[in-house]
Specification:
The structure holds 2 protein chains of 2 kinds.
Chain A (H helix, E strand, L loop, with lengths): L1 H21 L23 H18 L2 E2 L2 H9 L4 E5 L3 H6 L6 E2 L12 H11 L6 E5 L7 H11 L4 E5 L2 H7 L7
Parallel strand pairs in A: 1-5, 2-3, 2-4, 4-5
Helix pairs in contact in A: 2-6
Chain B lengths: L1 H24 L2 H10 L3 E2 L9 H8 L4 E5 L2 E6 L4 E6 L5 E6 L5 E2 L6 E2 H10 L3 E2 L6 E4 L2 E6 L5 E2 L1 E6 L3
The chains are: A alpha/beta, B alpha+beta.
């Protein structure tokens, strides 16, 4: 009877191991350690943060647009400031969560020459015709360059009040502000 | 006698759980990727769900790392490819190529859009409701990058984000 109970226990443990193993890919050869957070440096690497900061500063200086913080943008939204907020992330990210009132036009995360004619046209269409209107552009996080391209396009189109939100949707979520879906 | 019947029942249930568990591991999404998507990806030997170290090996360099909303990516500028990884697993989630020596579902970057659409159609993809460059099949998204609306200048294949 003891032997049977032991075998039963072994089968049970084996069954549970099999089921538990299904959801895991930890044993994939060469896979990197788990990092679940998203952002400029999910592992807290100062090197990554520094690299992103330098790139951000270069882009912002070259772009000549203004910056608005997550907190300040929240105040603007609460004050119902007249502005257009454009999310430059892919459509599926936009659908999952966006800053309230934002509209979507995906732009590439690399450089302007990678933006297709269709992407540029879709972005420009969202800007409207009032060149003095406040335009706020954001993407994922500080290390994301999509919003830089958007802000530059808006300035090229003659808009004078163009702002980029450095922290993007990740900072907005971290601040625990309401996300629209 | 009654005890024996109960024991038999417990045994049968446990065996069923094990079989179901083993079958579940290899089924659905990853099965489609292994059986259909990956064999249709001819990008320097890089495949979906491949581990990061193997990707670097296939690409022949480390590439340049950047973070994404769904994880991180490596840009191999000299090879005209960009590979996205799931952050929690370190395996390939997305492959983007602009390299004319590569193909995804037979689409070679640089080919005319009409030709690319014909191949996408022949492979049973469904068109996105909004974008004319985005297509779906099983848990896979296939996207065409068209700079001027005439050619397929690049192709992206990715696993739908969780």
């Amino acid at each position: 009877m003891k032997k049977k109970a032991l075998i039963l226990m072994m089968v049970l443990v084996l069954s549970l191991s099999v089921l538990a193993g299904c959801g895991s890919t930890a044993n994939k050869e060469g896979a990197v350690p788990a990092v679940t957070k998203v952002g400029t440096a999910p592992d807290g690497s100062e090197i990554a943060i520094e690299k992103a900061t330098i790139k951000f500063m270069k882009d912002a200086n070259a772009g000549k647009y203004k910056l608005v913080s997550t907190e300040e943008l929240k105040t603007w939204i609460d004050q119902k400031k007249d502005m257009i907020i454009i999310d430059t992330m892919p459509a599926d990210s936009f659908a999952k969560g966006r800053i309230p009132g934002a509209v979507n036009a995906e732009l590439p995360k690399t450089v302007m020459k990678d933006a297709t004619d269709e992407q540029k046209a879709a972005f420009i269409k969202l800007l409207g015709t009032d060149k003095s209107k406040t335009i706020v552009v954001y993407c994922g996080f500080v290390g994301c360059a999509r919003s830089d391209l958007g802000a530059v396009i808006a300035l090229e189109q003659g808009f004078t009040n163009v702002y980029r939100v450095p922290g993007g949707i990740v900072a907005w979520q971290e601040a625990k502000y309401t996300v629209e879906k | 006698m009654k005890n024996r019947k109960i024991l038999l029942f417990v045994w049968a249930a446990l065996i069923l759980i094990m079989v179901a568990g083993l079958a579940g591991c290899g089924s659905s999404a990853s099965s489609f990727i292994d059986k259909e998507a990956n064999p249709n990806i001819n990008v320097l030997g890089i495949k979906l769900n491949m581990a990061e170290s193997k990707v670097h090996e296939s690409a022949g360099s480390q590439g340049e790392k950047a973070m994404c909303i769904y994880g991180y990516e490596y840009e191999y500028a000299d090879k005209l490819i960009n590979i996205g990884f799931k952050s929690d697993k370190g395996i390939v989630r997305r492959i983007t190529t602009k390299n004319p020596d590569t193909t995804i579902y037979g689409i070679k970057p640089g080919t005319e859009l009409a030709e690319a659409y014909a191949k996408i159609d022949a492979n049973g993809f469904t068109k996105d409701d909004i974008s004319k460059y985005r297509f779906y099949k099983d848990n896979i998204i296939l996207s065409i990058i068209s700079m001027k609306g005439t050619n397929a200048d690049g192709v992206t294949i990715e696993i739908k984000p969780d």
